[in-house]
Amino acid sequence: MRRRRLKDGVERLLAHREWLVEEPEKHRGQWETVTGGRKIHLEIGMGKGQFITTLGKDRKDIFYLGMEIKEEVLLRGVEKAIEEDLDNLRFLWKNAEDVDQFFAPGEVERIYLNFSDPWPKNRCAKRRLTHQRFLDKYRSILSPKGEIHLKTDNEKLFEFSLNAISGEGYRLKNISFDYHNSGVSIPATTEYEDKFSASGMKIYRLEAARGEG
Ligand SMILES: C[S@@+](CC[C@H](N)C(=O)[O-])C[C@H]1O[C@@H](n2cnc3c(N)ncnc32)[C@H](O)[C@@H]1O
């Protein structure tokens, strides 16, 4: 049954393959042919795509890429982009493990990590998307003024991320321990964010700049 569902999900996703960048490694170092020279903002683990679709509608000067490994949720994001007919948003059905194979040094201006899986057990720490292993890959693709923007409901993941990111020499800024009650305007929310904030949970947020500012 699950196999069947998986096959259906893959088929439905591939029916919209013009929205996918299927071999991103072939664009490494020459993404301007895809983006038309616009700067790249990449959301890793984009889920059903509400966040990146909202940004894509508002900021036509930016080229958005959503990366996701699960085809069934990615499909939902693709469907949203189709509805909005966005020409500045495309998708990577890929694993963040390989992100540095898809972009040349300095090719990405911003990375969004929204409500990444917390992997609470210590023995799984290496899988967290803010583990040093991943931060090294992000550093290699971010432009000198590039930034990581992170949101989470998970206090432990937030603490881990603050430590890992500052240990990697990024400059932390705009740290919030209760983003939704901090008085700043929120340009876009994710599906998880809406769910957690509606149930009264705090949302943690940080920005990390690669350069010296
Ligand atoms: C907890 S969900 C959050 C989804 C969305 N960002 C939101 O806030 O609504 C985490 C998502 O990250 C994806 N993900 C986890 N590890 C990933 C990886 N290594 N590469 C790409 N996507 C990943 C999962 O498939 C899942 O859809």
CATH architectural designation: 3-Layer(aba) Sandwich
Which band does the percent of strand residues land in? Answer: 15-25%
Total domains: 1
Give the biggest sheet. Answer: 7 strands, mixed
Widest beta sheet: strand line-up: 3-2-1-4-5-7-6
Calculate the terminal CA-CA distance, rounded to whole Å: 52 Å
Ligands bound here? Answer: S-adenosylmethionine
> Averaged pLDDT, please?
95
> Poorly predicted ranges (pLDDT <50, ≥5 residues)?
none
Helix/sheet category: alpha/beta
Query: What is the CATH C-level name?
Result: Alpha Beta
Helix content percent band: 25-40%
Write the H/E string, N to C. Answer: HHEHEHEHEHEHEHE
What name does the CATH topology carry?
Rossmann fold
How many runs of DSSP E, i.e. beta strands?
7
Alpha-carbon Rg, integer: 17 Å
Dominant shape: globular
What do we call the CATH homologous superfamily? Vaccinia Virus protein VP39
Number of separate helices: 8
